[in-house]
Amino acid sequence: MDRDLLPGGSDHTSVCSVGDLVNLEWGKVVKSLNWTFIFNLVNFAILLYLLKRLLFKPALAYLDRRRELIASRMESARADEEKAAKLAAERTEVLKKAYEQSRQIVEKAHAQAEETIVAAKSEAKQDAERILDDARMQIEQERVQMKQELRRAYAEISVLGASRVLKREVKLKDHRRLLDELLAEIDEEALRIKQ
Hints:
Number of strands: 0
Distance between the termini: 176 Å
Largest sheet: none
Shape: rod-shaped
Order of helices and strands: HHH
Number of domains: 1
Radius of gyration: 71 Å
Oligomer: single chain
């Protein structure tokens, strides 16, 4: 053992106890310590505590809030993007439907116009046929009327000529009978001429 380690610093070669050795060592450590270093350590620990308490916690809280804000904004942006895509799809669908409806309206208008044209042509044709039929009927009526007038005129002329020939007056009854006979003969003659 070393002499300096013995209690009392004597040259005694007696044996020391373990407790004496520990006390001796501790004392040397305490004497050799630099108190400035210890104060610096304590100051550093206090500074770390204050920084943690006053700076790190608020900074971490701010960073957490900022992270949450960014996450919520990203989620909002994602939702807005999905909403915009959905609106774009809906707009496209509405435009397709509007185009289809306009196409159907145009087709319907063309079909109605075609039907109107066909109906107008048909009506015009019917009107023309009706006008022609009316004209034919009127012509036929006028022809029949003229025939009757001609027959009467022929009959009157014939009766007048016959009465002069006979130099007698024909009675009214006889006059009518003669007119009817002459008209019948004229009708027969007209039918024969027609055929």
